Amino acid sequence: MTLEVQGLRFKRGKLEIGPVEISLDPGEIISICGKNGSGKTSSLYAMAGLDRIDSGKVIIDGANMEYMNPREISRKIAIVKQEIPTPMSFTVNDIMEISAFTRGNDRDAINQSLDLCGISHLINREFSTLSGGEKRMVMIAAGIYQDSSYIFLDEPSSFLDIDKISTLSSILVKLKKMGRGIIVVNHDINYARKISDKIMLMKNGKVIAYGNTDETITVENLERTYDAYFDKYDSPEGLRFYASSSHF
Amino acid sequence: MNISWKKILKDFSYGIILLIFFMSIILSILVGPVSIPFKYVYESIFYQLGYHGFSIPLKYYEIIVILREPEIIGAAAVGASLAVGGAVIQSIFRNPISEPYITGVSSGASLGAVIVIVSGVFIFGIFSLPIFAFIFSLATVGLVYLLSMRDGRTPPVVMLLTGIAISLFITSIVALLLYSRPDMENEVFFWLLGSLQGISWREDSIIVPLVLISSIFLFSMSSELNALQMGEDHAKSVGVNVERAKAKAIIVSTIAVSAVVSISGLIGFVGLIFPHVSRIMFGGSNRRVIPASAILGGTFLVLSNDIAHLIVVGEVIPIGIITGIIGVPFFMLLMLRISRRGYYDA
Lengths: 248, 346
Prior knowledge:
The complex is a heterodimer of chains A (248) and B (346). Chain A is an alpha/beta fold and 248 residues long. Chain A is built from 9 helices and 12 strands. Chain A has a single domain, classed as Rossmann fold, CATH 3.40.50.300. Chain A has helices at 40-47, 70-76, 92-98, 107-116, 132-145, 162-177, 189-195, 213-216, 219-226, and strands spanning 3-12, 15-24, 29-34, 55-60, 63-64, 77-80, 150-154, 181-186, 198-203, 206-212, 229-235, 238-245. In chain A, the strands form 3 sheets. Chain A has a 6-stranded mixed sheet, with helices on both faces. A 4-stranded antiparallel sheet of chain A has the order 2-1-4-5, with helices on one face. The N and C termini of chain A lie far apart (43 Å). Chain B has a single domain (5-341), classed as ABC transporter involved in vitamin B12 uptake, BtuC (Orthogonal Bundle). With 346 residues, chain B is an all-alpha fold. Chain B contains 14 helices and no strands.
């Protein structure tokens, strides 16, 4: 039971992305970090089967994604996009129910997913009246309720208040314990370092480094990824990295 | 005890709108130049249902059964079809101001109708006009669909803009044809404004089953349509075969809307407004919006048809005029409501 991305290559606009290689096990968190426009989100979409790829393949639990229909893929991979959708007049419950498209709805499971994200009180609220952070949490809860083996999250911490970011961490840890394989596109390298088992660093569509978190997040790799001077220091929360200057 | 009228209203609102729908149908039978005692109305209905224990004067029975009933049933079917089509198109395009005509249904149908009227070619006998309108309508939507294809996908924005552009192009051709035959303007004008007059059981026998079947089919696609309303990527990620679902919904709704338009002419606003009214009353899930739109759209057109009969004694105003005149202020009120509750993010 593994999600294997092998030699994935594709073009988005003028940017040539890849080759991307990833191996995600159940209960594992991989973070993808890099500058804006480095191809992180595009890679995530391609791995989730949302966008076309030029070569390479994604093997999900032994099956090639190319030969799976959307229904089968959705049982394996849920993706929570960074953009918040703007549907016409849906309640939170309506949005949750959409995630169960391939199976019947289960009230208990809906409540559990909302509970995990700390938003069960919002179930009957109109989605468009929620705050940005609440909407984000609803989309994460909907992704969890989809009950797929793997879940991909694109910048899940955007729009979230600081206290909600720690909620997000605990959600990810719980999902990890539940045996879900998780890929997160992340801006914050220290946050990524704290939650991830593996890290992939990207720049201009190319993978700069990929591997175990401690081996991958080094001053040298970060400098190559972000074109900036980096430094590190020991903090009460462990080792922290920061960009000391943006001039390289 | 605290009685929540709002909740009671909500629990029974389906029943209420359905009751209003049937009442409007029955009461509309009374509307017309000849006044008919109400007792003959319900006796005629029972008679048609197989209970023959009444003596109804033949002249009343004929007016009710041959003249009025088919027009009212036709109005209900046309209204239902337009409103359901609107709900579907708004979901697919994720656009609150889209309506079933936007994909080229109306301009295509006009072209077909105008070709028949102006050229005088009646290869399908008296059904030439509706058949031409129907074929041209389907062909136009097909053309819009094909021209919107990008790498095997039809992005909603591309299709919306293509639909508008092609519609304008075809409308110009219609105008050109009219310009060439000014003597035919009156006849074409009436068709373009929309009219339910002269709908007989023969037309009903085609459109009523078609509208019923297509509406039930589209209702069965509620989950797909809900998912599409969240965006195509979201729909795909929850397991919807996006292009296939869109094609199915567009084809079925286009066939139904084209069929009713080919018989009624262009009736505006029903397809735009009633999906929104339904969303406000019942919430946004298409499981509730599609049936509610059908009932409300049907009721609205039945009542508008009554007004078309009543407003000028001895004449029937084209119903398209009525729906526009009632529709716009109604829509403005609705917009107040929408903006107040933050119905849309946009």
